[in-house]
Amino acid sequence: EPVPEPVPVLVPDGADTAQLRCRAQGVPGVQLHWEHQGHALRPDEPRFQEHQWREGPWTSSLLTVANVSQDRARLRDQYHHLNWDQSKKRHRHRYQNWHQDQNWEDQNRTLGTFVCVAQNPLGTVRRRLQLRLAGTVT
């Protein structure tokens, strides 16, 4: 069965923190945790703060990601660097490459994919959320 597309979570321009929300229910009760780049987030990681709570059958988790502007600056540098190279090398072919460049710009706004993992004794379900910059990177 195909893996569903990650759910985009937009970070407003200028914001330095982002929030990812996840909730799940199950019998028996569900535990939630987050993964990033294939690894479970460590509780002592200062950049990520998780708050988890229960409401009836539902377990909810709110993950706060700090220092978003750091990533934004890094992406902006990469983007300008790539575009500068392209305008030098591929000036005559710019129109042919338009779709490809659009696609790159789209990826360029992605700050990373986080996975919310819901677990109980009967199994595990993963849901992917993708942190993205709202608007364009200029």
TrEMBL record:
It comes from the Eukaryota. Residues 4-134 form the Ig-like domain. InterPro entries: Ig-like_dom, Ig-like_dom_sf, Ig-like_fold. PROSITE patterns: IG_LIKE (PS50835). This is NPHN protein. It comes from Herpetotheres cachinnans (Laughing falcon).
